[in-house]
């Protein structure tokens, strides 16, 4: 391996939930190539996207800061990221790195030297298939080759959109996990058709006359499998260019996807495990720690301090006052977990916050939501990992204890930052709608 600092090849996959990857135990073989990547590297079993959806998640990933510091709590933020906060590509630039980004996005991607767009496949049913990952590869492979020609260490970040609705993978992935007639009765579609806030968007990319909600679930899995094969094309080219021995590969997601879970159909809101639990796989250039699985809890805010430490820039973590903790001590065995409890927040379709421990999850609504969910939810994640049984009424003392822990943390962080609580700067109401494919795309581009 060269004495030059490691390159960073960073896959950021939109809406990929960990439990629909075969390397995380899913019954369908959706990610054979990611499974192999995990066998060659390290898989983190408990990475959490604590602040959802896209804008807060990516801001947290690229700043190493929590939501109280960066204040990006909503998909549509009230302003840009504080200019005093440096993002990962800006910090890497100080060490001579050049950074490229593939994919659309906002201020949370500040600091890249070059940005390349591609067709992310915001298609209706009649426009299928959506070759999102192939379109990304068409742009990524020349960009990778350009980076390799430079005499500088580099970071290449790709924002894959395949697991994000609409799920319209090309053949044979569109029938890989489902080849029945979706207009025949199956998993009840009526909740999707009867929910006006999201109905128009969802039905625009599902088969006309659909009666089986298992079909879009299988299309999600097919899109993941399609993307997995396309990602392998990038890894193959990395090897062909002689870059494997000097490139750290990082594979993660901004948030998960709810699919049919908890009544938050085929989106990524609700502070439930399918939305919060996301993958993290890293592969070192020299193959060290191959096959390791790390059980300790980590958060998105840990990514930037970890990468800086791994490329020899760990001193920047203290200089920048990062809120995240490097997960390098988890790799070396110096620490078993980065967290035993942590704060949760969402402020796009629901305005809620929560507190998660290794055993319990509290969800506290700041206003009524359009799903009609109770104002307080409490789940025992050991006895009820799918969060089907709300114990808030049976365990009032525990609810209060967790609320007190959450409130104390919030007050401490507000005192430390000197900033207002970002989630209290919003009111959402009950009338928000996704609307058409074009409207959904505009929401994502903010």
Please give the structural blueprint:
Blueprint: E1 7-13, H1 32-40, E2 42-48, E3 51-52, H2 54-63, H3 67-70, H4 88-93, E4 98-102, E5 114-116, H5 132-149, E6 154-160, H6 190-193, H7 196-205, H8 214-240, E7 247-253, H9 273-276, E8 277-283, E9 292-299, H10 303-310, H11 315-320, H12 328-332, E10 341-347, E11 351-357, E12 360-365, E13 376-380, H13 396-417, H14 437-445
Parallel strand pairs: 1-6, 1-7, 2-9, 3-10, 4-5, 4-6
Antiparallel strand pairs: 2-8, 7-8, 10-11, 11-12, 12-13
Total number of β-strand segments? 13
> How many domains in all?
2
Count of discrete alpha- or pi-helical segments spanning 4 or more residues: 14
Strand arrangement, largest sheet? 5-4-6-1-7-8-2-9
- Arithmetic mean of pLDDT: 95
User: What fraction of residues sit in β-strands?
Assistant: 15-25%
Q: Per CATH, which architecture of the largest domain?
A: 3-Layer(aba) Sandwich
Q: Could you describe the largest sheet, including whether it forms a barrel?
A: 8 strands, mixed
Query: For this structure, what is the CATH homologous superfamily of the largest domain?
Result: Alkaline Phosphatase, subunit A
CATH classification class of the largest domain: Alpha Beta
Anisotropy-based shape: globular
């Amino acid at each position: 391996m060269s004495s030059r600092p490691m390159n960073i090849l960073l896959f950021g996959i939109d809406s990929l939930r960990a439990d629909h990857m075969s390397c995380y135990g899913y019954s369908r073989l959706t990610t054979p190539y990611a499974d192999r990547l995990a066998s060659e590297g390290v898989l983190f079993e408990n990475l959490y996207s604590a602040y959802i959806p896209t804008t807060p998640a990516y801001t947290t990933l690229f700043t190493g800061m929590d939501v109280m510091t960066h204040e990006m709590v909503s998909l549509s933020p009230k302003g840009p990221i504080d200019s005093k906060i440096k993002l990962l590509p800006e910090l890497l630039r100080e060490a001579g790195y050049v950074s490229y980004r593939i994919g659309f996005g906002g201020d949370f991607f500040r600091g890249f030297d070059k940005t390349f767009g591609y067709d992310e496949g915001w298609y209706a049913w009649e426009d299928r298939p959506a070759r999102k990952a192939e379109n990304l590869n068409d742009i990524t492979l020349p960009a990778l080759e350009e980076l390799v020609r430079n005499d500088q260490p580099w970071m290449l970040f790709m924002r894959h959109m395949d697991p994000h609705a609409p799920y319209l993978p090309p053949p044979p992935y569109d029938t890989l996990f489902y080849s029945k007639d979706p207009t025949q009765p199956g998993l009840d579609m009526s909740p999707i058709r009867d929910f006006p806030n999201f109905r128009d968007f969802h039905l625009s990319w599902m088969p006309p006359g659909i009666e089986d909600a298992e079909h879009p679930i299988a299309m999600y899995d097919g899109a993941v499998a399609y993307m997995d094969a396309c990602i392998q094309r990038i890894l193959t080219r990395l090897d062909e260019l002689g870059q494997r021995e000097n490139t750290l590969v990082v594979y993660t997601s901004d948030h998960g996807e709810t699919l049919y879970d908890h009544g938050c159909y085929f989106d990524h809101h609700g502070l439930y495990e399918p939305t919060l639990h996301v993958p993290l796989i890293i592969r070192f250039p020299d193959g060290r720690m191959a096959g390791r699985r790390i059980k300790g809890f980590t958060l998105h805010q840990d990514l930037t301090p970890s990468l800086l430490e791994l490329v020899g820039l760990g001193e920047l973590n203290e200089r920048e006052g990062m809120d995240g903790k490097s997960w390098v001590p988890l790799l070396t065995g110096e620490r078993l977990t980065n967290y035993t409890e942590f704060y949760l927040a969402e402020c796009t379709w629901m305005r809620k916050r929560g507190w998660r421990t290794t055993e319990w999850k509290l969800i506290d609504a700041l206003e009524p939501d359009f799903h009609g969910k109770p104002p307080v939810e409490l789940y025992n994640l050991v006895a009820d990992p799918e969060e089907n049984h709300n114990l808030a009424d049976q365990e009032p003392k525990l609810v209060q204890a967790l609320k007190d822990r959450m409130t104390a943390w919030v007050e401490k962080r507000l005192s430390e930052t000197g900033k207002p609580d970002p989630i209290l700067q919003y009111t959402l109401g009950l009338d928000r709608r996704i609307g058409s494919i074009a409207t959904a795309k505009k929401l994502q581009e903010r």
